[in-house]
Design goal:
Elements (H helix, E strand, L loop, with lengths): L3 E5 L19 H5 L3 H4 L15 H30 L6 H83 L5 H6 L4 H99 L10 H16 L4 H6 L9 E6 L39 E4 L5 E3 L4 E8 L6 E9 L5 E12 L6 E2 L4 E5 L9 E8 L2 E3 L7
Antiparallel strand pairs: 1-2, 3-10, 4-9, 5-6, 5-8, 6-7, 7-9, 7-10, 10-11
Helix pairs in contact: 3-4, 4-6
C-alpha cells in the first residue's frame, strides 16, 4: 500500500509529528550553548544528599569560574595586542577578538545568573525581615507595658511598705511592750477586756499589712522575671533582625556592583562586536568567502530556533498518516499526496545534491566557525541570484522572510530515513524565494535565488540538514 501524507491547511502548520531520536554527531549544538553556571548542576538521578551544596562551596565554585574566565580573557587581550602590530584584520585577529567576546559573554552570564540568585535570596529574606520587624515591635510594646505595670506595683508597694515601717517604728519605741504587760496593768476587768480587744485588732491589722507586703513583693519579683524574659526575647529578635538587615545590605551592594560590571562589560562588548563585524565583513569581501556575522543577538537566535523546533515537532511521518483512518483526518486537510513526493523509512532520502549547483567551496563548515563558535550548517559562497535548488524531493513546510538570522529562508520536509527519523533541510539568506508553503518539489528543482539577507556578510547559501530536529553535518549526505 502506498504511503500517504496529509497536509493540514491551518497557517503554516502540518499534520506531521516528530520522533525524538537524537543524532549523536549533532550534540555540539546543545553543548556550545550550555553555560558554565549550568555545568555546576548535578545529575538528576543522584540522591538529594549528594546534590546539596553549601553557600561557601557555591561561592568558591563561582569565584573559580570567574578567575578562569578572567585568565582566558587576559590571554586573549594579550594575543590581540601582539597581533594588532602587524596582523590586525586577519582571520586570526578576528577569531581571537571573537574568543574575547565569547569570554566576556560568559562573564556576563555568570554575573547575571548571580544577580538572579541573589535577588531570589533577597525576595525570600524581605518577608522574614518584615515579620521580624512586626514581632520586634510587638515585643517592644509588651516590654513597655510590663515596665508600666511594674512601676505601678512598685508605687503601691512603697506606700504599703512605708505604712508597715511606721508600725514597726511605733512598736520599737514602745520598748518591751507586749500583750501580757498591757493586760496586767489594767485596773479592772472592764479595762482589761477593752485593752485586749484593742490589742487583738492592732495585731490583726499588722498581720494583714505584713501579708500584703509579702504578696506585693512576690508579685513584683514575678513581674520583674517576666520583664527580664521579654527583654531577652526582644534583644534576641533585634540581633536576628540586625543580622538579616546586614545580610540584605550586603546582597544589595553585590547586585549593584555586579550591575555596574555588567553595564561596563556590555559597553566594551558593543564596541568589540562592531569592530569584529566590520573587520569580518572586509575580510570576507576580500576573499569572497561570505558567511554569517558571529555576534548576532542570542535572543533573536533563540526565538527563530524555537519556531523551527515547534514546526518540526508538528511533523507526522508518512507511515503514521498511512495507518490513520479517514475519519481521523482533519476536515481542513489538503490533498492526499503519495509517497512518490516524500520518502518513507528509506535511506535513499540521504542521497542529496549540493544546494547551489556549481558552487561547492565552503566558507564556514559544521559544527563551528573558525573561532570555535557554533555553526549549525555549511555556507556556500555564490553570486547574488545564483540558483538554489532542493537537495532532495519533498514538500516545502515553511517560507520565511526575516531581516535577521536566516533572512529569507526555506525549509523542506523529505520524509523519513531507514531509522524512521524525519529529514528536513534549510536554505538561508536568499534574495528571493520561488516556492510556497505546501508545494511539492523535485530533487534539483530551483526553490530560490541566493543572496545576503538577514545575518550575512555577503551573498551565500546557508544549508542545514536536521534529523528529528537535530542538526547534522550536511557534507556527509551531499554528492
Amino acid at each position: 500500500m502506498a504511503a500517504v501524507l496529509v497536509l493540514c491547511s491551518f497557517g503554516h502548520s502540518f499534520a506531521f509529528a516528530e520522533e525524538n531520536n537524537n543524532e549523536s554527531d549533532a550534540k555540539a549544538a546543545s553543548a556550545t550553548t550550555t553555560t558554565s553556571a549550568r555545568q555546576s548542576t548535578t545529575a538528576g538521578g543522584q540522591e538529594e544528599d549528594d546534590d546539596t551544596i553549601t553557600k561557601e562551596e557555591a561561592q568558591k565554585t563561582l569565584e573559580e569560574q570567574q578567575a578562569e574566565l578572567q585568565k582566558n580573557l587576559e590571554e586573549a587581550e594579550k594575543k590581540l595586542a601582539e597581533l594588532e602590530k602587524d596582523s590586525k584584520g586577519t582571520a586570526e585577529y578576528i577569531d581571537t577578538l571573537d574568543q574575547k567576546i565569547g569570554y566576556m559573554n560568559e562573564q556576563l552570564t555568570l554575573l547575571e545568573n548571580q544577580n538572579i540568585e541573589i535577588q531570589a535570596e533577597i525576595d525570600e529574606l524581605l518577608p522574614s525581615i518584615e515579620k521580624n520587624e512586626k514581632e520586634l515591635e510587638k515585643l517592644s510594646e509588651e516590654v513597655d507595658k510590663t515596665k508600666d505595670e511594674l512601676e505601678k506595683l512598685e508605687e503601691k508597694f512603697q506606700s504599703v511598705y512605708e505604712a508597715y515601717c511606721i508600725r514597726l517604728r511605733v512598736m520599737y519605741i514602745s520598748g518591751d511592750f507586749n500583750i501580757l504587760s498591757a493586760l496586767m496593768t489594767c485596773k479592772d476587768i472592764s479595762s482589761l477586756l477593752t485593752r485586749y480587744e484593742m490589742i487583738k485588732s492592732v495585731s490583726k491589722s499588722d498581720t494583714e499589712l505584713l501579708k500584703e507586703v509579702q504578696a506585693q513583693t512576690k508579685e513584683i519579683i514575678t513581674k520583674q522575671d517576666g520583664l527580664d524574659e521579654q527583654v531577652a526575647k526582644y534583644e534576641a529578635a533585634k540581633a536576628t533582625l540586625d543580622e538579616q538587615k546586614k545580610a540584605l545590605e550586603g546582597k544589595q551592594k553585590t547586585i549593584e556592583s555586579n550591575s555596574e560590571q555588567i553595564a561596563a562589560k556590555k559597553a566594551v562588548l558593543a564596541t568589540d562586536r562592531a569592530e569584529s563585524d566590520r573587520m569580518f565583513a572586509e575580510l570576507t569581501a576580500q576573499n569572497k568567502q561570505y558567511t554569517e556575522f558571529r555576534n548576532e543577538d542570542s535572543e533573536l537566535i533563540e526565538a527563530v530556533e524555537n519556531e523551527i523546533q515547534a514546526l518540526i515537532s508538528g511533523l507526522k511521518s508518512p507511515e503514521e498518516v498511512t495507518t490513520a483512518v479517514a475519519s481521523d483526518r482533519p476536515s481542513s486537510s489538503g490533498p492526499i499526496i503519495t509517497d512518490s513526493e516524500v520518502y518513507s523509512k528509506s535511506n535513499a532520502v540521504l542521497n542529496m545534491v549540493y544546494p547551489v549547483p556549481g558552487h561547492k567551496s565552503i566558507s564556514a563548515g559544521y559544527p563551528n566557525y573558525s573561532s570555535g563558535q557554533f555553526h549549525g550548517g555549511i555556507d556556500f559562497p555564490c553570486p547574488t541570484g545564483s540558483k538554489v535548488v532542493a537537495a532532495q524531493k519533498g514538500i516545502v513546510i515553511t517560507v520565511k522572510r526575516l531581516d535577521y538570522s536566516y533572512g529569507y529562508y526555506v525549509m523542506i520536509y523529505h520524509g523519513t530515513d531507514a531509522k524512521g527519523r524525519s529529514v528536513v533541510t534549510l536554505y538561508g539568506h536568499n534574495s528571493s524565494i520561488l516556492v510556497s508553503t505546501g508545494q511539492s518539489v523535485e530533487k534539483g528543482e530551483q526553490i530560490a535565488k541566493s543572496g545576503s539577507t538577514g545575518n550575512s556578510t555577503g551573498p551565500h547559501c546557508h544549508f542545514e540538514i536536521r534529523f528529528d530536529g537535530v542538526r547534522a553535518n550536511p557534507k556527509n549526505y551531499l554528492s
